[in-house]
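User: Show me sequence and structure for the first protein, then do the same for the second.

Assistant: Starting with the first protein.
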Amino acid sequence: MDFTSLIAVFLGVVLVNNFVFAQFLGICPFLGVSKNVSMAFGMGCAVTFVMTISGVVTWVIVHLILTPLGSRFLGNPESLYFLKYVIFIMVIASMVQLVEMYLKKFFPSLYTAFGVFLPLITTNCAILGACLLIDMNEVYQSSLVKSAVFAFGGGVGFAMAITIMAGIREHMRFSDVPKALRGAGITLLTACILALAFQGFAGIGK
């Protein structure tokens, strides 16, 4: 397999089509957990792990289980595809449970700091979006490796976005922000400026 194409897939989803800044997926945890860098980085790593494993596992289930079963027993390889969305949610929820148990055992302070946002990774639309994009794109449908790189890159892009945002928000605590913009206002404005900045990567690969 062409290594250059894998690099292009990775950079494309990290920079050009970043799930947060370009596709506006995963905004809830992005805004809710980006208050300090350590917590944001931890959330980014958790999302990267869940997104990568979920992307790979769902690809395997759809192409190596559902498709052969549908073709063999029902005469149509797509006849069982109605189960895909249920499977996606179940796989994502299972991966989140693994992360939750790991953090609770080995990093209890981080587990406590995440609070409700950790189980909410299950409903993080960025992760479900990655699984759906892999399923809908013919390039990823035909290649497990490219699907894995895409899912991993999506997680890295999310981690980068939330960590950058957390660093900016930490510095803003010591800034003289106008009273009318304090809180959600300045946070959303900062996110908009970052999204505009990432538009500068749109020409990569052309």
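Switching to the second protein now.
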Amino acid sequence: MFYEKSIKIMAMIKAAKTILLNAHRSPDLDSIGASTAMMKVLRRLGKKVDIVCPTDVPSDFLFMEGAEEIRTIDFSTFDFKPYDLFIILDSGSYDIVTGKKEISLPDIPTVVIDHHRSNKFTDVKLKLVEEEASATCEMIYKLLTEWKINIDQEMATALFSGIAGDTVFFRYTQNTRETYKIIGRLVELGADKDLLVESMFNNYDFDSIRLVGEFLKKMKKEKNFVWSAIDLETFRKYGKPKGIRELSADLFFQSVKGAGFGLAILEQEKNKLFVSFRSIKDTDVSKIAKSLGGGGHRNAAGCTVSGEFTLTVNNIIDKVRKLI
């Protein structure tokens, strides 16, 4: 048995009639893969299921079956009364679920399934966290195996995509042997690697590439890290492409010789800066992100900081300098 709590989670699912799933704020492949795969399983079990997200789902992720059904909502006004179970997937803090720190979770029984070492949930009905899992999709695969659920091609593709995304396409894994064993099994089950590659790497629009260029043009090198910051005006100039901060960080910000890590800063909303950290194997950026109010993984983490652009960027960089 992978998880002793799997039996309790299934018992809660069986007792529920209408279930709500989340895709977290600024959803990534792991969030979308886990929620869409779980939605399909729950519907097989005869449950009414919805997935909600506080921000829009990037169009690049719509290749996963069910992603088009994810509803963008305002957690402060949404009616949660029809639901008798909330399953939170791939989220380590309240604000990444609801979109804002000042918005609390709905008052319904809640289960958390997550792999972030910085998971902060304390007042939920049941919490399953495996820090050694490379992705929440890896955990979902294990749960489905324990529940003896048949994984079809669409589910395999979603789970494969989530694991690929959170390992930065297999560059960083928490437990390499187990992760590759699961990946191999998902391929056997029909996971469509080519569909993932086509959707994520052969599908960039022109303005997105140009904005990556802005990140690179503005990149600065400190003693042992690099960073770049883009303001809202520049972000708007290139059409505010979704996922551009994460893309830039994944491709370049942990790849500079002599730099242990990098951070990409983007003012996505007025006076609201989103930060993505990426590092090489031995540098734990989750600790830095946590000190700034965020969290994440050893080699990939993030946070959100509010304040005037130039002053806030300087404060972030000064704090990072002092922490390393």
